[in-house]
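Why predict the complex rather than its parts? Because the way molecules touch one another can change local conformation, and only a joint prediction can capture that. The input here totals 645 residues.
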Amino acid sequence: MTPLLEARGVMRVLPGPVPVTLVRDIHFSVQPGEFIAITGPSGSGKSSLLYLLGLLDVPTSGSIYLEGRETSKLGRNELAELRLKKLGFVFQFHFLLPEFSVLENVMLPMRKLGARSDSLMRARAAEILDELGLTPEARKTPDQLSGGQRQRVAIARALANDPLIILADEPTGNLDTKNGRIVFDIFKRLAEQNRQTVITVTHDPHLSEHTQRQIHLVDGSIAGTEHPALV
Amino acid sequence: MWLPLEIALTHLRNRKRQTLVSVLGVAMGVGFFIAMAALMQGFHVYFVSKVIDVWPHVVIKDEYRSAPLQPAQRLFSDGVVMLRGLKPRDELRGIKDAATEIAALNRRSDLTAAPTLRAQVFLRYGSKDVSATLVGIEPEQERRVSHLENDLIAGNLNALHTAANGIILGDGVAKKAGAVMNDTLSVTSPAGVILKMKVVGIFRTGITPIDNLESYALLKKVQILQDRPNVINQIRIRLSDVNQAHSIAKSIEARLGYRTESWEETYENILSIFVIQNGIMYSTVSAILIVAAFGIFNIISTVVHEKTRDIGILKSIGFEERDIRHIFLIEGLLVGLVGTLLGWALGYGLTRMLGAIRIHNEGFITAEGFILHYTIIHYLIAGGFAILSATFAAWLPARKAARLNPVDIIRGAA
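Output of the joint prediction:
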């Protein structure tokens, strides 16, 4: 079976007078419905790897396959289209557009995709917000929300176009334990119930141990893979 | 609503003051352009239409554009010949065989020609001597080549026939001499002839040099005054299509050899002032619009800088470079567009205001107030230039925004 996402010999070097190797020699593959944590100390290249997997960045050598398709030869617009249709991002900071309401923020990716009518998009956005318990907040703007609520809105937006993979970069980094827990439960549910793949960067061992697989990075390369859920 | 447009509007709404300043900058550029263009072109158009109305379109004179070649020069046409102390022969002035020429010209369907004798005279009235140009005309023919009759503010053209020695004075000439209708002046010519002439008409064309210098009398009387019986020295021509003046003048000169001037050539020095004037206007107004463009550049650069995070997130969601560029281009375009609309209103208001001002103004055109030229073209030029410069001002920051790398933004923020 073709893996959903596969990295083959991925290396990323930041060019400059002193080139910096962010990640190197990355090999692994991801199946649908997996919940994966990328862990490692600061500066180990966790986020860089996530950006590469999320097609935000392009590897210096090696390639990344999404549904069996090699992505390193695609142009920027094609990558943008893949991100729009297949991927959803959640960052440490919520990154919501401050001038738009919660509902509008969630609708942004749908409107960019333009596959549905306005009323259908509205209905779908409301549905997602409802699943995440944000219905009362739909009309508010981001600055009227708590940190946990904002992060859930960011997840709702990541889910807008029913992505195959949700990529999260320290999604709980700015949240208290309770809200961090909530976010992780949502991810877990998405992976188990919707068969959506979740890849999250975290350095919180309490959270990462609830994932199915942990990819541990040290100095930009994979130091080990654990399957705590299977233990 | 189209998403980039919606985002652009949000950005502008959140920076109301800067947006307003930029819009006003554009509006002022557009408004002043329209007002200045109306003012400047007003005088220009009015002057040209007056000249075309008052002055014959083409004048054939009894002189040659360049002195005839000396025999030595003709013999050594490719050599350098220098002749000193030349004494050119006094030519008998006047257009030779004028009657035949005029008859020939009048057979053409695109023009009418009339003979005149133009000469300097002194008008003496009481204690005043006024020098003037006296133009001898045949009223019946003159009617067909100029609108002198329409410019008469007193008397009429036929009175030249009915009065014994009638003269029609320019408004300015009459004022200088202190003469009014039915006064009798003595007119002295360089040939020494003195005639008592009665003022039977006063004209005002509105073009000061004409009103201050010209007067008219019957051709025959002027010939007597100048002691040049049956001589004429100018053929005045009016064309059915005034735009042909230059080429027709050229072709007539080529055929007859006489210096033949189109009205553009006669008024070349004044027309060239308008060219300079237009240059000043366009550079002034361009400067205003360029300053406005800097304002637009500034606001959009600021927005791009402030919204870097948003750009990163939009790109990570899957927005293409094109979408991002559109957002900021639209912002510039909107500022340009709204500024243009406001500027049109401002320009309209300003021209109305200028039009309402009443002042007595005597340059080479006499007018009570500003002469304005209203045309949609000024609005289109100003608007087009404003929108173009606004879009260009937005283009640079928009391009920069579109090229931002989302990873850099997210790394920087995270």
